[in-house]
Design brief:
homodimer; 337 residues; alpha/beta; 13 helices; 42% helix; globular
C-alpha cells in the first residue's frame, strides 16, 4: 500500500511539473513581442475555430541552422571541419602539399587563412567533402565532432546550440509541426548530428547538396561516392527550391538570421500576418557576438543581417528576435532561468 | 445499463475484428514464398531479440510506383497526362501547332503517336510539365486525375492501385516503418495524389525532379516556376542517389518491378538476407497484363522485368511476386477475398 501511495504521489508531482511546463513552453525567453508572436502563432494555427488554423498534415516549420539554431562565429563549424581535414587529405594526396590553397592552410598562419578567397575555399570544400563514400564521410565527420572544440567556449560545437531555440523546436513539435532544418551548410554534414543535437532526423534536413555516384566498394557493398557536382545551393532563392525539392509543401513558419534566409521567409509567410517569419539579431557581444546592421557588412554576404533585411522584415510583418533582450539564457549549459 | 452492455458488446466485436485483421495483415495474398518473406521480414526486424532488429528511426521501406503500386500499362499514367495536355499547351502557344512532335499528338493517330521517339517524348514532357508555377501545375494535374479514365477498366487511374500492395504499405506502417515512394516518374506529379491514393505524404515521395526558379506571381505572391532543367533522374543508379538526397538513410526493404529498380534493391538489401528485396512479376494477362521475361523485351528498357534481372534476384536472395499466383485480388474495387 505504501508503494501505491508513493506511486500516486510521484504521478501527482509529474503532472504538476507538466502543468508548470505547459504554462510556459518557452522558459528561456523574456516576455516580449518575439515570444508573444511565437506563442500566438502556434495557438492560432492549432485552433480549429481560428481562421489561421493549419491542418495537421500541413504543419511544417523551417529553421536555418548557422546563426539561428547554433553559433556561427567566428567561422561556420563546417568550414572549420574542412580546414582541419586538410592535413588528412594531403597525407593521402601528397601532390597537394605545395599547391595553393592547401599550402596556406597547412602553414597554420591564421591571418593568411582568413584572407583565402571564395574560389580557394571552394577548392578546400571539394577536396575535403567529396571523393569518399557517404558512409566514410559520416564516420569522419562524427569523429571530428566528438573531439573538436569551439575556440571561445572550449566546448564541442554540438553544445553551442541556443536553448531558447530548442524550446521553440519542442513547442512546434508538441503542437504537431514537423520541424525541418533548411541550411546553407552541407546537407550531409548537418545530417550527421541533427538528430542528436536538435531531435531532427536526417530526412528533415534540407541543405546544400552535391551529387553522388552509385557503385560498389572493395567488399562488393553498394555505396554512394560524394561528387564535386552541385545539385542544390541552399541559400537565398535556393532555400524555397530546396524546400520544394525535399518537402514538397510550403512551410507556415520560418526562422532565419541573414539575407540568405530572406526568400525562405517570403515563401513561408506569403502575405503579412498569414505565416510566421522570425529573424534572430545577434546583438549580444557579451554573451555571444554582435554583428549585422551595426557592423555595416555588405548586403550580399550570407550570414549577415543587413539593414535592407531589417527594413524588409518591417514591411512584411516579420519579427526580429533580439538575442540580448529576448533571451534569458543562451546555451543548455548556462544556468537555467 | 443496456447501453453499457451494448457498448461492451461493440467493444468486444471491435477487438475481435482487430484480432482477425492482426491474424492476417495481408488478406489479399495467397500463402506462398512471397507472402511469408514479407511477414518474416517485418516480424524479425521489429523483434528486439532478433539479430535482424532494426531501430524504429531506421525503419525505411521504399516502393517503386509504376508497375509496383499501380498499373503502368499500356502507357505510364504521367505520359498519358502529358499527351492529353498538348492541346492546352498549343492553344497558349499556337506556333507549336504545326511543329513536331506536337502535330502528331494533335492528329490523334494512335499508331503515329506510339512511334514517337524518346527525344520527341522529352519535348512533350518539357512543354507540358514545365513553364508553369508549382501551384498551377498541381491544380492542373489534380483536375486531370479527377476526370481521366484508364482505357481498359474505364476507371480513374487513381483506382488502379494494387490492393495487395496497399496491405503491404499498411503492414509496414503499423510496424513503425516509414513508407516512401521512389519513382522514375515525376516527383511533383506523384505528390499530387500520393496521400490520397497510398496514404504517403508528399515529403515521402522521391522521384525524377527538375529545378525550379523562385519568383513572384502577378499578385506579388512568392512561388516557384518549374524549369526544364533535370536535377535527378530517379531511375537505375538514380534511385539510390535520390534516396540519399531526400531521405539520407539506407532503406531496409525495397519493392520494384523492373531493371530501373535493380540498384535500389541492391542498395537496400546489401548482402543476401540482411534486407528485403521484392520484385513484382506481371504474369497475369487475364486480370492485368503479362510482360517481362516472357516477352523478350530489351534489357535496358525501364519498366520491364528482364531475364538478367530475374537471375540477379536469385543471386541476391530477392523474392519474386507472381501477380497470377500470389495475389487473390488485384484492385480495391474487386470483390474481396
Amino acid at each position: 500500500m505504501k508503494r501505491l501511495w508513493a506511486a500516486a504521489f510521484l504521478a501527482l508531482c509529474l503532472i504538476s511539473a507538466n502543468v508548470q511546463a505547459a504554462d510556459d513552453p518557452l522558459p528561456s525567453w523574456n516576455d516580449g513581442t518575439a515570444k508573444q508572436a511565437i506563442l500566438r502563432f502556434v495557438q492560432a494555427t492549432t485552433d480549429r475555430s481560428n481562421a489561421k488554423f493549419v491542418a495537421p498534415e500541413e504543419r511544417i516549420a523551417t529553421f536555418d541552422q548557422d546563426g539561428t539554431l547554433w553559433v556561427e562565429h567566428p567561422i561556420y563549424t563546417q568550414v572549420v571541419y574542412c580546414l582541419e581535414r586538410v592535413p588528412t587529405v594531403v597525407a593521402k594526396k601528397p601532390q597537394l602539399k605545395n599547391a595553393e590553397p592547401f599550402k596556406t592552410v597547412l602553414s597554420g598562419n591564421r591571418e593568411a587563412i582568413a584572407k583565402l578567397t571564395l574560389p580557394d575555399l571552394e577548392k578546400i570544400l571539394a577536396a575535403t567533402l567529396t571523393g569518399m563514400t557517404v558512409d566514410e564521410f559520416q564516420a569522419e565527420a562524427k569523429n571530428w565532432l566528438a573531439t573538436a572544440r569551439h575556440p571561445r567556449w572550449q566546448r564541442p560545437y554540438m553544445e553551442l546550440v541556443y536553448q531558447p531555440m530548442l524550446e521553440v523546436l519542442n513547442l512546434f513539435r508538441t503542437n504537431g509541426y514537423r520541424t525541418y532544418i533548411v541550411t546553407g551548410g552541407g546537407q550531409d554534414f548537418v545530417r550527421v548530428y541533427s538528430e542528436q543535437v536538435y531531435g531532427i532526423p536526417p530526412e528533415q534536413v534540407v541543405g546544400t547538396a552535391g551529387g553522388t555516384k552509385y557503385g560498389f566498394d572493395k567488399e562488393g557493398r553498394p555505396d554512394l561516392t560524394k561528387e564535386p557536382r552541385l545539385l542544390l545551393n541552399d541559400n537565398f532563392a535556393g532555400k524555397p527550391e530546396g524546400i520544394h525539392l525535399v518537402i514538397g509543401r510550403r512551410p507556415h513558419a520560418a526562422f532565419g538570421n541573414s539575407t540568405g534566409d530572406q526568400q525562405m521567409l517570403e515563401y513561408a509567410t506569403i502575405a503579412n500576418g498569414a505565416g510566421l517569419g522570425m529573424l534572430l539579431l545577434h546583438d549580444d557581444a557579451a554573451r555571444e557576438y554582435a554583428y549585422g546592421p551595426a557592423k555595416g557588412l555588405p548586403d550580399t554576404e550570407v550570414g549577415t543581417f543587413t539593414q535592407p533585411l531589417y527594413d524588409e522584415a518591417k514591411k512584411r510583418g516579420w519579427f526580429v528576435i533580439s538575442m540580448k533582450n529576448d533571451w534569458k539564457r543562451l546555451f543548455p549549459f548556462d544556468n537555467g532561468p
